[in-house]
Each structure stands twice: as structure tokens, then as C-alpha cells.
Specification:
Blueprint (H helix, E strand, L loop, with lengths): L6 H9 L15 H11 L11 E7 L1 H19 L5 H8 L7 E7 L9 H21 L2 E6 L7 H6 L8 E11 L11 H4 L6
Antiparallel strand pairs: 1-2, 2-4, 3-4
Bound molecules: flavin mononucleotide.
């Protein structure tokens, strides 16, 4: 049997952190690295082998085009009808904060003997695995929802309008980054207990 232990993985997971999209350096993974990140992202626990998720990749000009053609009009129509031009321009540029944006769609099969909740959890696993894969390659990355995950016109543009479909999130991936700041992390003992307590 081949060696399966990867001692560096645990130390990486205990130290990894996100870089906010607002602070991402320019750049992003090249095509081979992005393919590897995506391949890792779809290798997740998936009860029933339903693959109840889809990923839409935005890179290059597609980021600005989606902002112009979808985000801007959706914001003006559904989020803030009196938004000034400066706000609309900022909203249109949302995906341009990162070199690559991955929209992860939760597209469960309902009804099905595999519970909806489990299929949705699997979409969360896709998000987290994409995030870990990008960060493990040294890229700044963050999982965001923002209004763009819930807006009906954005959902429609991503073919994610089914009654049980959801945008699980967007994985923003920027250039290579070191990140020296961290956020407060949960108190281990407040989270973890042993039964019987
Ligand atoms: C489903 C989901 C949606 C999120 N959406 C947002 C968001 O819209 N805005 C935000 O500031 N952080 C959001 N976050 C939080 C950040 O992605 C992340 O938790 C934080 O940056 C720290 O992540 P880290 O543990 O990788 O350092 C979201 C997290 C999850 C799990």
C-alpha cells in the first residue's frame, strides 16, 4: 500500500487564512493550475454520487462583461433603485477584484432519497476544497456570497433559478499573497466536547 500520510497538510490547514477580495494582489492561477484547483474542488464527499453542484469560471474580460451585463442592471433593479453612478460602477466591478472568480452552484436533485441538506453540504465542501486548493498553491482567496449570491437576476444569468438551486458562494482567487493578519478564531473548548460531558 502506498504511503497516504501527508504531514504538511495538517499544519497548512491549521494556519491557512483568507485574504479579503478587496485586498487581493493582481494576478491569479495559470490555466494548468486553475484546472488542478477545479479538479480538486470536485473531488469531494457526495452521498449518492449525484454531483449536485456546478462551477462557473469567470476570468479575463468575462469578469467585466458579467459586471456590465448582469451585476450592474441587477443591482439597479433589485438592490438599490436609486443607486448613483459611482455605486453602480463599483458593483459592476465586483468580479474584477480577483483574477479568477468561481461561482459554485448548489443544484440538488429533488425529490431524491439523498436528503436535500446532504446535497447542499456537498456544495459547501466544493467551496471549501476550492478555497483550500487555491490557498495551498499560495494564492490569495476568499469565499464570498454578498448580494450577488441571492439576487434573482444573477441567479437566472447563472442558470441557477430552480426552486432548490442556490449559489453556494463565489471563490475569489487573486495573485500570490502572504497574509500576516488573522481574525479571532473560535475557542476550541467552547466548540469541542466529549460525550458524556
Ligand atoms: C457561505 C459563506 C459566505 C460568506 N460570505 C461573505 C461575505 O459576503 N462577506 C464577507 O465579508 N465574508 C463572507 N464570508 C466569510 C469569509 O469568506 C471568511 O470566513 C473569512 O474571510 C475568514 O476565512 P478564513 O477562515 O479562510 O480566513 C463568507 C463565508 C461563508 C462560509
Amino acid at each position: 500500500m502506498s504511503e497516504t500520510r501527508q504531514p504538511s497538510t495538517l499544519s497548512f490547514l491549521r494556519a491557512r487564512r483568507s485574504v479579503t477580495a478587496a485586498n487581493m494582489p493582481a494576478g491569479g492561477p495559470d490555466q494548468d493550475t486553475l484546472h488542478a484547483i477545479l479538479s480538486a474542488g470536485i473531488r469531494v464527499p457526495d452521498h449518492g454520487k449525484l454531483a449536485p453542484w456546478r462551477i462557473v469560471v469567470f476570468e479575463g474580460e468575462a469578469r467585466a462583461a458579467f459586471g456590465r451585463d448582469v451585476l450592474r442592471p441587477a443591482f439597479a433593479a433589485n438592490q438599490r433603485t436609486d443607486a448613483p453612478e459611482t455605486t453602480l460602477a463599483l458593483e459592476a466591478a465586483r468580479f474584477e477584484r480577483a483574477g479568477v472568480v468561481l461561482a459554485v452552484l448548489s443544484t440538488p436533485t429533488v425529490p431524491h432519497k439523498i436528503p436535500l441538506w446532504e446535497q447542499q453540504l456537498s456544495a459547501g465542501a466544493v467551496c471549501q476544497t476550492l478555497l483550500i486548493a487555491a490557498q495551498a498553491e499560495g494564492f490569495a482567496a476568499q469565499w464570498l456570497s454578498e448580494w450577488t449570491a441571492f439576487d434573482p437576476d444573477v441567479r437566472a444569468a447563472l442558470n441557477c433559478s430552480g426552486e432548490n438551486d442556490q449559489i453556494a458562494g463565489y471563490i475569489y482567487i487573486g495573485g500570490k499573497a502572504s497574509n500576516d493578519s488573522d481574525r479571532p478564531r473560535p475557542d476550541f473548548d467552547a466548540i469541542v466536547s466529549r460525550w458524556p460531558s
